[in-house]
Each structure stands twice: as structure tokens, then as C-alpha cells.
Amino acid sequence: MVKKLAFLLSFFIFSIGFSQIPSGYYSSATGSGYTLKTQLKNIISNGHIDQGYGALYTAYQTSDTDIFYENDNTVLDMYSENPNGLDPYNYTHGSRQCGNYNSENDCYNREHIFPQGFFNSQTPMRTDIHHVVPTDGSVNGRRSNYPFGEVSNPSHTSQNGSKVGSNTFDSFTGIVFEPIDEFKGDIARMLFYFATRYENEVTDATWDSPNSSTSNPLNGTNNQVYDDWYIKLLYKWHTQDPVSQREIVRNNEAYKFQGNRNPFIDHPEYVNQVWGTVLSTDNIVSLKNIKVYPNPSSTNSITITIPNELSISKITLYSVIGSKIYEEKNINFIKNRIRIKDLKSGVYLLKIENTTSSITKKIIIR
């Protein structure tokens, strides 16, 4: 998660200034819940120009180039990138496009994060760069039309650690595809974009019915769009893997290419504002009951109190520029309290996580 730390502030406090958002672009997004979602749909539909399927390969030269990890200008493929070392293989833009493939590292093609089999390859969703990305052809084939999920015992693992197997998250037990942690938030925000941009199309009778395939996560409505378990999964990934510089660059390049933006990159807080009624059935509301005091503090320390019914997996304290100051896992509370001492004067971000969600609080030490 190295790429994320420097951008925690943009995710949890503000995002304007890090993104090249046109002035007034979101000025009509004034509602909440699914009203807000429709307002966003109208914003990102206006100006969206379908550039065609073939043009994506050219667009990837600026939207999906590795200037963030090895910095070698190769194709940035979420299914083969190794963020912590050398990639297992690389592709050069413009060469080895699929075509046929037999194994990994044969060729790369275009992966629809929301499978085009579910919308029968209709346009403009088939050509929409905000959810169509370059990936290794073989791993793309392994992903097939499976939804995303979390896998404990994979039937197949790609060279960068992406997995196929039975889902272990929430209520769904079918086959899913799990990408590596580095890109889970990226994928979640692409799927939230898709649910928003195409909310008028997802209940089309020509689309694969949510009851006709156990792998289709659509719930049959154009407001919520996805099943409850899928919303919760995507929100978990969205919060645990915040917006990165890579996503900001990609969003800006996508805007140049086809004239619209992903609002959940520009304004990550929109996710909870739109789907809050689904998410409130989880522990997110309970997380808000966590108390941190004193705040502001003049004692160089803070105390965190956790409600009895709430299980916490990790607490992390970051400086305002994203440096990790303190981390505690597998927490054993004494009287449901934990104290962090010897803090220097300044502004901090305290992130508290459970297995499905997280919350971040701004801390001031005077």
C-alpha cells in the first residue's frame, strides 16, 4: 500500500487541488442518496464522447503507463503489476496486443471491470475507459465474468497474486476474482462509476437478469444497482485503499480522452453519501461512536474508547503528510480503551478499521 500513504489527506479531508477538476463541474451535485447519484449521472453523461473501442489502446499510452512503480513507461496492468518489486513481466504500448493467448505474458488486451457479457457489448459502456483497462489476456480470461470478491483457497493464482476461487466475504459463496490489495480501491471506484453512469441502462431487459446467473451482482434496480454484499465489499475496498496519484492521473487523462470524469475519484465521500442506506446495516454507524479525547489535546497524548460491541482489527495514526506514526493490530483493549502518548504538536489522521469498514478522525495536538 506504499502508493496510498501520501494521499490519505486528499481522501479523508479534501480532494480538490490534487485533481484537475473543471471549475463548477460538480456544482449541480447538491442532493443525497440516490438523488445525488442521478445528479452525478447527469453530470458525467454530459460531454461523454464515445471514441470507439480501438482508440482505447492509444489512450492507454497516457492513462495506463507505469510512471508510479518501476517508472519504466510500460503498460500499467493491475493483473500483472508487482507494487513491491520487479514485475513478473511487462508489456510495451503498441506491441503484443491480443490476439490469441495460451498463458500469462503472451499478450495484453482490454478488460471490462464490469463484464461486457452482462450488457451484451453495448456502447458506450463497451468503450468507456473509466472501466475498461489494459490487462494480461490470460488473467483477463481467468477472471471471465466473475464478480470481484475475496478468496481464501484459490483455484488459480496469477503471477502477481490475483486469485480465482470461492468467495469468503459476506453472504455470496460463488466463484469470484480477487485482485491484489494495491488496486482494490481503484476497481471499487470503477464499479461505483459504472453503477452511476449507466443507472438508466442496468435494468434493460436485454441485460443479463440478476436471477439468471449467480455471478451477476446486479440487484435489478437502477438506484442501488448492485446486491447488498457487493456494495459492502466495494465500500470496504474503497475505504481501505484510498485514492492514489495513479488514479488521479488516470481520471484526468480519461477526461481528456472522452470528456467525463469519475466522481468517486474526485470526491470519495460521494460513495457513502449515495449508498449510505445499504452501508448503515454494517458497522459503519457504530464506528462513528468511537470517542477520541482530548481533541484538540495539549497533553501530547490521546485516548481512544471503543463501544463494547465493536470489534477493531487495526488502529493507525498518520501525520498530515501521510507518514505512519503509530499502528496497532489484533487489539487487546483494557476497558475498551487505548492510549497513544508522546505525540508532537501538529495535525494527525487517526484511521480505525474493522473487517468491513473504516473511519478516519482528524486529531490536533497543541
Automatic annotation (TrEMBL):
MF GO annotations: endonuclease activity
Keyword set, alphabetical order: Endonuclease, Hydrolase, Nuclease, Signal
Domain Secretion system C-terminal sorting residues, every copy: 292-365
InterPro entries from the UniProt entry: Endonuclease-I, His-Me_finger_sf, Secre_tail
Span of the signal peptide: 1-19
Similarity annotation: Belongs to the EndA/NucM nuclease family.
Matches recorded under NCBIfam families: Por_Secre_tail (TIGR04183)
Protein name: Endonuclease
Organism name: Polaribacter marinivivus
